[in-house]
Amino acid sequence: MAISAVFLALLCCPFKQLFSQNEITYNIGILLPFSSDGTDAANRNVEAIIDYYQGAKIAMADLEQYGFKCSLFVWDSQLKDSMELIKLSKTSEFRKLDVLFGPISQNQVNLLSSSISNKELIWVSPLKNLKMPKAITSVNFFSPDSLRIKGLANILRSRFKNHQFCLIDDGSIEAKKYIGFYQKYFKEQITKRKYGVYRLSNGKISPNLPKSDSILLIQIGESQAVKTTLYKLIEKKPGSFIVGSFDWYDHRLKIEETDENKILYPTINFSRGADSLTRKFSKIFMDEHQGEPSRFAYQGHDQFSFIGFNLMTYGNQFPIFLNNATMIGFINNIALAKNANGYYNIGVRLVKYKGNEKLLY
Q: Bridge-partner residues for 204, per DSSP?
């Protein structure tokens, strides 16, 4: 089944008693805007939400084959004003929820925060980075930029065990904004190897780069004009790569004087459409809904698979057991990190270009 890739990835997590909680029937609520006010933006939003929901339903059907049991409650947040939301939060169905997905409005989250009394609830923000109440366990599947940098440090540490890390400060506004986060998180993650900050100005870098053939030039600023200069610095270093900023993937510029084979593009959303399991999911989706799955359908599948498998394994307190664990989904890597406001997904993917083809590195 389509779930197999996710399942195998989860087996890499530090599970002590696999599926020890699979005799429990969990109550899961979905509170998302399924209807539109008629504007173009709202119509596009509804299409995304419906795709997300359909992907989640495929995941739930797959989870049932592993013994997952749940009662699903679905509400349309678009049709509920503030009084209706308060009334909903007091219903027996809402009060017994183990997991709540949504809403995606900060105002609605704020409104519900004062009404939710179930302290064992896992409250999920599926599609936006929202400020969730501290008194309840929350999972934001999308993180602020600062935590994405932590995720980048995490994946580079795990994938490049023998490399030296060179943070490139090009003096730009973006570099000045984010360099502190890069230094903080690389210092946390890269404990046994050297890393350093290198200033790039007028085509020259200082101090001199390490002589090793295995280095990573990690660009902090958004400018892609530096690609040529950075490439020349590692052109004759066979094990070395340039790691772009997150902006590079969404606004990629191909520069002729560089070899794309030596550039890695960090991103959050990337689907491997060519592998057999992704094709199987896509076929199931198209057979049921007569259309290609969007990224929201893949996200719905990844997120519900993640929540379902971890509920079966650890129950409602699963986030505390997932230190340094990563789930490999269809479109996202999911790796939870905790800060004062809750749990955030810091999973990052690295993409490499081969001609015009995008490959997961």
A: 201
At 193, phi and psi to the nearest 5?
-130, 160
Q: How far apart are CA 61 and CA 337, in angstroms?
A: 28
For 181-192, letters b (16+ CB in 10 Å) and e give: bbbebbeebbee
Handedness of CA 268, 270, 275, 279 (dihedral sign): positive
The order of strands in the sheet holding 195-201 is 204-206, 195-201, 164-169, 215-219, 241-243, 263-267, 349-354, 357-360
Query: Are 151 and 347 a contacting pair, CB within 8 Å?
Result: yes
% residues pLDDT > 70 (the chain): 93
CATH for 145-267 is 3.40.50.2020
Which tokens belong to 199? 């200033």
pLDDT digits (tens, 9 = 90+) for 1-50: 444 444 444 444 444 455 555 678 999 999 999 998 878 777 888 999 99
Do 333 and 319 contact (CB within 8 A), yes or no?
Answer: no
Q: What is the dihedral of CA 342, 181, 184, 343, to 10 degrees?
A: 10
Q: Which residue has the tokens 């049991």?
A: 69
Fold of 4-142+273-347: Rossmann fold (3.40.50)
311 alpha-carbon distance from chain centroid: 19
Closest-CA residue to 54 (of 292, 273, 237, 254): 292
The DSSP call for residue 77 is G
Token pair listed for 223: 């400018």
HSE-CB at 214 with a 13 A cutoff on CA atoms is 9
| DSSP tag of 96 | T
What's the angle, vertex CA 342, arms to CA 337 and CA 348, rounded to 5?
30
For residue 116, what are the CA distances in angstroms to 46, 89, 111, 121, 123? 26, 7, 10, 9, 10
pTM, two decimal places: 0.90
- Listed by start position, the domains of the chain span 4-142+273-347, 145-267
Q: Retrieve residue 229's tokens.
A: 């200069």
* Contact present, 257 and 233 (Cβ < 8 Å): no
